[in-house]
From TrEMBL:
InterPro entries: Mopterin_OxRdtase, Prok_molybdopt-oxidoreductase. GO terms for cellular component: membrane. The lineage of its organism: Bacteria, Pseudomonadati, Bacteroidota, Flavobacteriia, Flavobacteriales. GO terms for molecular function: oxidoreductase activity. It comes from the Bacteria. This is Putative formate dehydrogenase oxidoreductase protein. PANTHER family: PROTEIN YDEP, RESPIRATORY NITRATE REDUCTASE. Residues 1-21 are annotated as: Disordered. Residues 1-11 have a biased composition (Basic and acidic residues). Residues 125-391 form the Molybdopterin oxidoreductase domain. It comes from Algibacter lectus. It holds the Pfam family Molybdopterin.
Amino acid sequence: MSSSAKDKAKTPEGFTSLKTEAPPKNTVGFGALKAAAIQVNKYMKASDALKLSLKINQKGGFDCPGCAWPDPDDERSAIGEYCENGMKAIAEEAQNKTINRDFFVKYSVDELTNFTDFEIGKSGRLAEPMFLPEGATHYQPISWEAAFEKVGSHLNALNNPDEAAFYTSGRTTNEAAFLYQLFVREFGTSNLPDCSNMCHEASGSALTETLGIGKGSVKLDDLYKAEVVMVIGQNPATNHPRMLSALEKCKNNGGKIIAINPLPEAGLIKFTDPQNPIKLLTGGTKLADVFVPITINGDVAFIKAILLKLLEKEEELGNVFDKHFIEEYTSDYNAFVADLKTYNFDECLKASGVSVDIFNQTFDLILNNEKIIVCWAMGLTQHENAVIIFENLLIYFC
């Protein structure tokens, strides 16, 4: 591969196929139904699409590869327990189109680096093993036996099995993942990272240090019953739209939603459930009660400002913090208070970019409610200061 091809294979610095338009004020609805139908009809037979749609995220069916949103324990939609993104992912995974050797004769490695991720995915599935010899400009087909021999010879040449890392995707099917890890452990290592390491390493580290467990402890049913849900660094409608249905249930039960993000997310402004005919006709449900337009990298400052005000109220009223829980199950509370008092509220609020009015609306919801859930996603976990952000969030909210 040439040096220019290697450079192109890295994360692109330029933008591809981006268009700007006025931000929408509503999401999902008829538009989602139309977009999903177009993708499915383009890459699958209608009969196959219908058959698969009845099994997605259903008991006895299969997990959707679109995202990691949990399935309800009991109540599941008979119409379809999936979203527009899920159907798009299924359409790509289930497509019958294959890439044969003629494709690689036509396109050199340099030319392939100009393909977008979308174009690569929609080109089809690999039909046979391909190999790039030293100095070659095109991938070449090899037999399965030759492919296994090459992989095996490289692995066996290692001084120690731990010198190898076996990266995979969190969207891999359970059966394939089981066989893959069995092979890796038989080889002699447990180096099995996947995309969730990149996504959640920071939150896992902070959770382990503060709570002693590397995963969130909230169940889907908790979300329905929460008094306040704080959504921070997360765009549900874009990345995991099924969450919007859970937030709508929370709202219907009297819950309040705080959306914290530099830009407004259309799905948190208003959500139109495509499975609810009345909502389709009436225009959906307003979700976010408070939108906090935080400045980029202002997360820690904003959370510190909240903690400072909570401490102020605790010292004034004496009933804000759960002192019994703190004394029984935590350590270094006095050190936490001493550190917090080194910060200035006005400076923190200014650094966060949040107005006094918006801060007060947010703070009042946090102060006056007990059943509070904090949700986050890649906006925080892949942040430069991710671990620090989570540690500050977890100090109070968890």
